[in-house]
Amino acid sequence: MNYDPNAKSVIVGYSDSNYGADTGDRKSVSGTLVELNGDIISWMSKGQTGVAGSTCEAEYVAMYKCRQDILFIRNVLKSIGVIVEQKSRLFCDNRAALIIAEANVNHDRTKHIDIKYHAIRDDIRKEIIKVEWISSELNIADIFTKALPVDRYKKLRDKLLQK
Q1: Residue 4 placed within a domain
Q2: Is the Cβ–Cβ distance between 41 and 73 less than 8 Å?
Q3: Whole-model pTM over 0.70
Q4: Range with the lowest mean pLDDT among 51-60, 95-104, 112-121?
Q5: pLDDT single digits (tens) 41-74
Q6: Looking at the domain assignment, is residue 2 inside a domain?
Q7: Which structural domain range is residue 53 located in?
Q8: Number of domains into which the chain is organized
Q9: Half-sphere exposure of 151 (CA within 13 A, CB side)
Q10: Domain containing residue 115: CATH number
């Protein structure tokens, strides 16, 4: 791990989901990955607890899960005196989910999303987290959500191994 005690630690998260992945109960799968100074320190692949009403909602839930890991890591680092970069970046490949996160209003199309997931809005407002779009091709968390074509799998696997 690359650690310089005089430099600010940078935390970056990636989130993805596979909408309705479970053919039995139609629940989605969340995948997240968190890096500290470019090194992977946390990753997750887990079925969501509820049934998402849309791809956007499934992605939003995955963002929330990644947010939880980012905040935990930030708090641990701060508790041991490590300086953390002001904003942690959280990448997502779903533009609609990013718009919901950045908009501080509720719409008819989003009122079904559980209110707890909107906590990310507070983190954005407080400048703890900055959400950003990333193409699906570059989203490392994609490997944790579904079976991929061999070429795509190898590309993401190799990217993970370089970390």
Answers
A1: no
A2: yes
A3: yes
A4: 112-121
A5: 999 998 888 777 678 888 988 999 999 999 999 9
A6: no
A7: 11-162
A8: 1
A9: 1
A10: 3.30.420.10
